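quick one, 186 residues, struct below
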Amino acid sequence: MTVALTAILFLIPLFLAVALLIKAETKGPIFFRQKRYGLNRQPFEIFKFRTMTVLESSGAFQQACANDRRVTRIGRFLRRSSLDEMPQLLNVLSGHMSLVGPRPHATAMDDTYAGVVSDYDDRFLVRPGLTGLAQITGYRGPTDTYDKIARRISRDRVYIRRWSLALDVMIVLQTPIQLVKDPNAL
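---
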């Protein structure tokens, strides 16, 4: 939590700049909030910078796709750079998330894949993370096929089985490198 608080304080100027850009481009809230499942499948509200013109925070879930018209201009940059995820430091501070762990998915996605992907619910044995092993090993971005989600879950399970402080440090250090190397988010 100390790392999250320090990061939030350090990033306040960036947060303010992003907030102004979002407000300048579109009407609506600065933050997107959505229910996600955390540790022991307990629901919590995740925070992100809003990157779309719509606010699909409940009900049917539609993942963003290439050239998605719902994504704003500033939203494209925020999503590719993962800056849209930075408000999740507030979720880390509140104890709903960790810096490292399986990335939390929309609850509709979890509900859909839990019955299809083997051992899917293992990801709820730990707190979800701002970044994770799946994200630094090429499984960041859309999970629009069974194969992609199965591979991501496989990496989440490896993380859970092999967890150590050294692994968390390695993932945190590798995340910015991977973001530059493979900007896979839409």
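The longest helix spans residues 2-25.
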